[in-house]
Amino acid sequence: MSASENVAAHAPRASQMRRLDPAAIGGVMSREVANFRTFWKGTTFSSVLEPVVYLLAFGLGLGATVVDRVDGLSYVEYVGTGMVATAVIFSSALPAMFGTFVKERFQRTYDAILAAPVDVEELVTAEMLWIGLRAGFYGNFPLVVAMIFGLDPAPGMLLVPLFAFVTALGFAAFGIAVAASVAKMDQFNYVTTLFITPLFLVAGTFFPIDQLPKGIQVASQLNPLHHLVELVRGSAFGFESTDLLRFAFLAVFAVTLWRVAVSRMEKRLID
Amino acid sequence: MAAIELHGVVKRFGPITAVDGLDLEVPKGICLGLLGPNGAGKSTTMRLLTGQARADEGSITVLGHRLPEESKDARAEMGVVPQLDNLDVDVSVQDNLAVFARLYRVKDVRAAVDRGLQLARLDGRRGDPVDQLSGGMRRRLLLARGLVHDPPLLLLDEPTVGLDPQIRTELWSLIDALRTRGTTILMSTHYIEEAERLADEVAVMAHGKIISRGKPSELVAQHAGRETAEVYAAPERLAEVRAKAEAQGLKVRPAGPAVAIVGSENATDGVIPPEAIRRAATLEDVFVLLTGEEAE
Fold it and tell me: Which ipTM did the prediction report?
C-alpha cells in the first residue's frame, strides 16, 4: 500500500475534524504522562514531606505554644484540612506557569504539537486536565498526613479529590494564561508575590479569615482557595448549604480562566 | 490538483513583510527545494502551511484543504520535520513516537512506533531516553516522528542544518528513499548542495517571493550557463579581472577570496586570465547571482 492510498483511506475530512477532539486531548495528555513517568518520584516525595514539615512546624510548634483551638478544631485538624488548598495551588499554578513557558519557549514542544492535527484549544484543555488530575491526586496528601497526626477520617472526604481537581483546573488555566502573557520568566516573580502568596495566605489555611479587617474578609470571598479550604473542612467536619455555592464558584472560576488561557495562548502561539 | 498551492500570499510582522506576494505550487510526488538566504521567508512559509501563522492576504490550499479553516485536516495528512530539535529529551525513543502516533490519530500505535524505529534505525535504542542519543540519531528520530502516520506530504524545514557531513549524507539517503516512494516533499534549505542532490525542482526565494524556479540543471543553464571561471588573486588584481569581464557583459560574483566569472565559456580571449580555475557552473552560482551578494 502506498503512502497516499493509506492516508486517503484514513484521512478525516473537514466535517470529521471535531472541536475538542478527545483523541487530540488524550494524545497531548499522554505526552505529559510519558514525561511524568521520569520525575514522579520527586513529586511524590515532596508532596508527602511538605505537609509533614508544615504540620510539624505550624501544627505542633504554633499549635502547642500559641494557639490552642481554632473555630472549635485542634490546630492540626485546622491546618491539616486547610493545607489541601496550599498543595493544590502549588501543584497547579506554578507547574502551569513554568511548564508552559519552558515548553513554549525553550523546548518548542508546542511547535511540534501544533504541527500535528491539534489546535490551541485542545492543547490548553489537555494541559489543564492533566495538571488538574495531578493536583487532584496530590492535593489529598496533606489530608492523609493529617490523619497520621490525629485527624479523623470522614466519608465526605471522598469528595476532596473532586474539589481539588476543579480548583486546580482554574489555577492551571491561570498559570497557562500568565505564561502566555509574560515576555521573560523573571516576570513570574510579580505574579507569585502579587497573587499567589496572598491567595494562599489569606485563604483560611493557617488562621481564620473572620479575624481580619472587613475589607479583606469581603475580598477573600473572591479567593478560590478560600472556598476550597471551606469545602475541605466541610468534607471533614460536616457540609453547610453554602458549600454548594462555593463549589459553583470554583466551577465558574475554572471555566472562565479556561477561556482566558485559550485566548492568551492563541495569541502567543499563532502568528 | 497540486499538493500545495499558495497564491498571492502576504504575511507581515509589524513593519516587516516576511512573505510578500508568494505564488508557489508543489505538484504531487516531487521534492521541491525552497532555496533562499536567511530571512528570505522560508520558515514563515512553512509556518503558514501548518497553520501556525495566518496569512494577511492571499490563499493557501494544502492537499485540497483551504487554510486556515481546514488547517487541522491538512495537518492530519502531512508530516512536519522542524528545523530545531523539539523531541522530549527525558522520554524514551518509543514514547516520543507513540505520543505523535496518538496526536495523528493512528489506529495501531504499536505498529506505527515499530515502523518509526525501523526507519530511524533505532530499534535497539527504543527504551533509551532521547538525551542519550547522538545528534545523528536524534535527527533520524525527528524525521521518523514526522512520518509516524505515513503521510503523503512532508514538510522539511532545513533538515540538515548544523549537522556534520556524515550525518547529513545519511539523512539525505533517508529523504531520497521517501521521494522514491512517491511522498511529496517541500524542503526549505539554504544549503545548495542539499537542494541539488534531493530536489526535483528548486524554487529560489528572496524577500518573500519566488524569484526563479525550475529543475536544478535548467536553472544552471538558464542563469549561469555552462562554465564558471574562478580567479584567486590579490584584491587589486581581482578588481581588474572583474572590470574586464563585466565590460564584456559577463556576470561576476564574489566567491570568498576569489571572483567567479559566470558563463566563462562565452568570454573572448584575454578576459579569463590563464591562472583561472575553470569548472562546471553550479546552482550556487545561480543562487548568489539571483539573491544578491548582501547577507541579511
Answer: 0.90
